[in-house]
């Protein structure tokens, strides 16, 4: 009977544990969500196996913390793909595959390490002739929204580069410039650059973040 009460207590405390994360960045909250889920799963496992609920909860939280971080990164990658696919609805637009970094995530208490693929960058080429069309503006809106979301949830700086070919500078009067937009505790830094590697008649939009090679959660 006592074990039933303990399990109920752990599950009841979960919302309060998550609420207490409100002052942390979203990335940490995502890890905490995984930890809470892991704790609940550990408690239920303890009930079935007659093991100590507290110990099982701690073990579940260890696994959950890493899982939470992994879920957050997987979500970023999937949302990047959706933003790029939406931009491809513009006539003549093309996108490159989403690029990722490998991050080794370690639980600081146990030393357990998992390898996680984290979003690194995504690029979309939008024909200059389509930039000011309704579809072109909508594609840029979705790319901007994605950049803001990542910056807000990570609490970090996200780089958004808009590159145009050098041969079009004179005709379009594009000048190199930089702007910075706050996004939660993070920011989106937008750079308009002249890049001779950019295909003719195209505006290349690249969203990029910096990931650590190793991280403790």
TrEMBL record:
It comes from the Bacteria. InterPro entries: Gly-zipper. Residues 33-71 form the Glycine zipper domain. Pfam families: Gly-zipper_Omp. This is NAD/NADP transhydrogenase beta subunit.
């Amino acid at each position: 009977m006592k074990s039933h009460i303990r399990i109920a207590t752990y599950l009841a405390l979960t919302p309060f544990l998550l609420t207490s994360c409100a002052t942390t960045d979203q990335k940490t909250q995502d890890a905490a969500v995984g930890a809470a889920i892991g704790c609940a799963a550990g408690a239920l496992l303890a009930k079935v196996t007659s093991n100590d609920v507290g110990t099982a909860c701690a073990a579940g939280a260890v696994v959950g913390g890493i899982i939470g971080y992994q879920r957050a990164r997987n979500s970023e990658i999937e949302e990047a793909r959706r933003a790029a696919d939406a931009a491809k609805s513009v006539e003549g637009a093309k996108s490159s595959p989403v690029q990722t970094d490998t991050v080794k995530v370690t639980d600081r208490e146990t030393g357990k390490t998992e390898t996680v693929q984290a979003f690194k960058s995504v690029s979309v080429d939008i024909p200059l002739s389509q930039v000011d069309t309704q579809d072109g503006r909508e594609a840029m809106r979705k790319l901007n929204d994605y950049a803001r979301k990542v910056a807000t949830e990570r609490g970090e700086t996200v780089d958004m580069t808009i590159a145009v070919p050098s041969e079009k500078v004179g005709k379009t009067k594009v000048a190199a410039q930089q702007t910075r937009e706050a996004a939660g505790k993070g920011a989106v830094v937008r750079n308009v650059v002249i890049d001779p590697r950019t295909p003719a008649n195209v505006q290349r939009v690249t969203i990029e973040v910096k990931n650590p090679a190793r991280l403790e959660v």
